[in-house]
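User: Small ask, check this?
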Amino acid sequence: MGNQIDPIIDALESRAERRNDRRAFFTAALGAAAVGTAFAYSDPAKAQAAVTDADILNFALNLEYLEAQFYLYAVNGTGLPAALTAAGSGTAGGTVTGGARVDFTSDPNVGAYAREIAADEQAHVQFLRTALGSAAVAMPNINISGAANGPFTAAARAAGVVGATETFDPYANPNNFLLGAFIFEDVGVTAYKGAAPLITNKTFLEAAAGILAVEAYHAAIVRTTLYAKGIPALIDATERISNARDALDGSPAEDRIRGIGPDSDQGIAPSGSDNTLTSNIAPLNVNGLAYSRTPGQVLNIVYLNAATTTMGGFFPNGVTGSIRSTT
């Protein structure tokens, strides 16, 4: 996995600097009243129409389809039943490329976590489909292959987790599975937080907040488990993956109240040493707030493309629904 020391040192220094800046909270808070909470959505296809709650929930449903398929295949070797992938109107769902059962024998605790998360993600799919009713979109074509030409390998190569000719298979062992899960979980948390200001119905907003909380628990499980292993190569890999995600989602101007900024992603490298050693399980800004991503930024990551596009990566033909462009 290359040099395992310099990236960790850089991450530690960066983390320490962010923690020293926490005193800026009260200064930033003085201007909170002047900060707007609505996100602009710039998809040309939606430029003349408001983004509806159904659009937002269907966007979330696409992400839940992806996570559910990844975890279910890792646990069972099979994915969602067809009844949970068709559109609310009956249109058949897409296909899943790849996916395999992970042998958790060497780390049964990770296997237990995986089974819990898989059940949660399937429940999210069911819940959102029920909430949307006939407006629920079908599952798009999804690629979760661990092969050399799959999106996990493409993501790992781009991040420098593996070499340019090496393969990253998240189903090969529990450690690889955790890194595969790490790719998704932080993105899910920032996606739900970023979508919150777009939801107008309070019932839907509370439901989305409930899912956000669960996704945050999942992310914490993955990050804590990776950290507890104490393996430098795994810590290094999380830093590289987080840096790659930041490169994909651009460099928005920092807004400490809304939780937006160019460093909206962090790995699990700790700061300090001995009695001052501090972990980085919760990736937060200087005000202790979780980061937000716009739908476009989320798509940049899952499409594995920093440019303007409507497909790629884990969604080879794009997501289904009205929100599908990275712009």
Summary: The first strand starts at residue 96 and ends at 98.
